[in-house]
């Protein structure tokens, strides 16, 4: 998703930078609205249906406005890249501040964890999704959905670290200068990536393809469905199942 700066757009940028021209700002916001839609689509995949896309869009718009306000055209950085950090960061920050998991979802997750622990103690092995669903007498899709939501909630809380700069909303997503990178951090990061890659390699062909198209090629679920000839809901189920299996494997190795 790369936007090419046209001569006309450059004029609007010049007006915005020099005088904060309101009309120029509105034109630039409209041009980059697709960034908000893109990140809302990406983030909403793992969220429960109770989270409104309109709310996510509002958070993303705040990030886009903030990006426009703070962007420095003299830096060697494209606005697309800078705004993407801001938009995604604003959405995730908003989710962190809100208790977006409903009480019923939290209760389901709690019950799920208790059943998993009880069955694993009983069988002395990792239990399958089918066994969990049977024990709880619920559809297997509900198992995937609950674990998926809980997994994303945990991810949201992982990288909340204070930052001294005014770029708090994107602090967690900025890549450090390699010259200042801690060698131990690099080693741990590479080991984590290798571990995740190894787990994904055990998935079946369709699951690996969905993960690759979504995270590597950055297609939306609808686009992946068109590629594979499946419905968007079916692709969403496959994605949720992959996240569930990934989480289970990672927790097992801890």
What features would you describe in this structure?
There is one protein chain. By secondary structure, this protein is mostly helical. Among the domains are: 7-97, Rna Polymerase Sigma Factor, Chain: A, CATH 1.10.1740.10; 179-246, PhyR, sigma-like (SL) domain (Butyryl-CoA Dehydrogenase, subunit A, domain 3, Up-down Bundle), CATH 1.20.140.160. 71% of the residues lie in helices and 0% in strands. The chain has twelve helices and no strands. The chain has helices spanning 7-19, 22-31, 33-44, 53-70, 79-97, 103-123, 129-136, 140-158, 183-200, 205-216, 221-228, 232-253. Helix 1 crosses helix 2 and helix 8 packs across helix 12 (232-253). The longest helix is centred in the C-terminal third of the chain and has 22 residues, at 232-253. The protein is elongated.
Distance between the termini: 37 Å
Q: Look at the structure and name the CATH superfamily of one domain.
A: RNA polymerase sigma factor, region 2, helix turn helix motif
What fraction of the residues are assigned to beta strands by DSSP? under 5%
**Low-confidence blocks of residues:** 158-180
Shape: elongated
Q: What count of helical segments does DSSP give?
A: 12
Reported CATH architecture of one domain: Orthogonal Bundle
Could you tell me the CATH topology label of one domain: Rna Polymerase Sigma Factor, Chain: A
Q: Mean pLDDT, nearest integer?
A: 77
Helix-residue proportion: over 70%
Instruction: Work out the radius of gyration.
Output: 21 Å
Tell me the name of the CATH class of one domain: Mainly Alpha
Largest sheet: none
Order of helices and strands: HHHHHHHHHHHH
Number of strands: 0
User: What is the SS-derived class?
Assistant: mainly alpha
């Amino acid at each position: 998703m790369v936007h090419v700066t046209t001569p006309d757009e450059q004029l609007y940028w010049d007006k915005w930078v020099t005088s904060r021209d309101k009309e120029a700002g509105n034109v630039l916001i409209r041009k980059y609205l697709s960034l908000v839609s893109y990140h809302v689509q990406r983030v909403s995949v793992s969220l429960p249906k109770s989270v409104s896309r309109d709310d996510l869009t509002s958070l993303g718009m705040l990030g886009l406005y903030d990006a426009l306000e703070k962007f420095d055209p003299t830096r060697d950085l494209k606005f697309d890249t800078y705004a993407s950090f801001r938009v995604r960061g604003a959405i995730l920050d908003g989710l962190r501040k809100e208790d977006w998991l409903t009480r019923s979802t939290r209760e389901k997750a709690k019950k799920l964890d208790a059943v998993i622990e009880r069955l694993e103690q009983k069988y002395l092995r990792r239990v399958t999704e089918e066994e969990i669903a049977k024990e709880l007498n619920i559809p297997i899709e509900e198992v995937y959905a609950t674990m998926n939501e809980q997994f994303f909630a945990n991810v949201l809380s992982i990288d909340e670290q204070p930052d001294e700069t005014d770029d708090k909303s994107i602090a967690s997503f900025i890549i450090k200068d390699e010259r200042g990178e801690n060698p131990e951090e690099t080693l741990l990061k590479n080991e984590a990536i290798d571990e995740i890659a190894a787990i994904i390699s055990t998935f079946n062909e369709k699951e690996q393809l969905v993960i690759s198209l979504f995270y590597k090629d950055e297609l939306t679920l609808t686009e992946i469905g068109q590629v594979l000839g499946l419905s968007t809901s079916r692709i969403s189920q496959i994605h949720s199942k992959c996240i569930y299996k990934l989480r289970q494997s990672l927790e097992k190795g801890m």
